Amino acid sequence: MTATIIDGKAFAAKVRGQVAEQVARLKADHGLIPGLAVVLVGADPASEVYVRSKGKMTVEVGMNSFEHKLAADTSEADLLALIDKLNNDPQVNGILVQLPLPDHLNEDLVINSIAPQKDVDGFHISNVGLLGTGQKSMVPCTPLGCLMMLRAHHGSLSGLDAVVIGRSNIVGKPMAQLLLGDSCTVTVAHSRTRDLPAVVRRADIVVAAVGRAQMVPGDWIKPGATVIDVGINRIEKDGGGTRLVGDVDYDSCAAVAGAITPVPGGVGPMTIACLLANTLTATCRDNNIPETTGLTV
Ligand code: NAD
């Protein structure tokens, strides 16, 4: 069997197109332009690349992008004061603080100071609690993107066995909540899981979010299963240089799976598309305008 490739790049372009259409409608019908504020503390090169591409895509879908670059030694009080200002700025519908933060800043405190309705990353404890109790919330972008692709591929996920490998607050746990919400039977595996291969072999859906290059081989995959690879790992290439790979061994898994997301070009592009979708959703909720179905849960 050769797996269907789930093209996250094309899917993300479609989602951004839908967001752009809705942004144009908000402007025409309500005179509203959604605004996304991104706060970057320090000059981590990878974070700078993310922030730049987020800003570019925000503008491309017709939203306002507000970038706040702060020095690495910014005090917690100054950062909290900026967030407070953004919380109270009607031009700003979404706020994202780029993680990781420098060590002297308390990440939990900072994230929980964002107004929950503007927390487009979905990391505020209120949003985590709302998602966990099946209520409307801001949903973390990466698992939201995974869910959108799974729904598009399967239609209904009801009754399917799903195994999420990884239990991080950013990916694994919210992914498990979303799959439960769609009536999957969910197992969350992690570094202490006994006999991981046997656990993964039960799954109709495997979501790998570990951060270990190519750790899931094809012989762990049930024939016909859907494999969503969240991992982004840089490894040495045979002939020199580096390349990006996921948490699953693509070639051996694609030979057994029914469908699989590639790395790059799978989950990654969906994350920013979902950030834009969340900013649109936040703007609609803030103004009592019906939300666009399919762009949120
Ligand atoms: P994390 O380090 O916070 O969590 C990793 C999880 O993997 C932990 O819960 C741990 O228990 C589990 N784990 C570690 N070793 C394991 C093992 N041997 N067997 C089973 N489980 C094991 O990582 P994260 O933030 O969830 O990110 C995971 C991966 O996803 C990383 O490669 C990251 O770069 C990538 N990521 C991609 C996107 C995207 O947009 N595509 C977004 C976020 C994260």
Tell me what the structure shows:
By secondary structure, the protein is α/β, with parallel strands linked by helices. It folds into two domains: 31-115, Rossmann fold (3-Layer(aba) Sandwich), CATH 3.40.50; 141-269, 3-Layer(aba) Sandwich (Rossmann fold), CATH 3.40.50. Helices cover 40% and strands 16% of the residues. It has helices spanning 8-30, 45-60, 76-87, 107-111, 125-132, 141-154, 172-181, 196-201, 250-254, 267-286, and strands at residues 4-5, 35-41, 64-70, 94-97, 161-165, 185-189, 205-208, 226-229, 233-236, 242-245, 259-260. A six-stranded parallel beta sheet has the order 1-11-8-7-5-6. α1 (8-30) runs parallel beside α10 (267-286), α6 (141-154) runs parallel beside α7 and α6 crosses α10. The model has no long low-confidence stretch (mean pLDDT 97). Nicotinamide-adenine-dinucleotide binds at residues 142, 165-168, 170-172, 189-191, 193, 196, 209-212, 230-233, 267-268, 271. Nicotinamide-adenine-dinucleotide (NAD) binds next to α10. Pathway: One-carbon metabolism; tetrahydrofolate interconversion. Belongs to the tetrahydrofolate dehydrogenase/cyclohydrolase family. Catalyzes the oxidation of 5,10-methylenetetrahydrofolate to 5,10-methenyltetrahydrofolate and then the hydrolysis of 5,10-methenyltetrahydrofolate to 10-formyltetrahydrofolate.
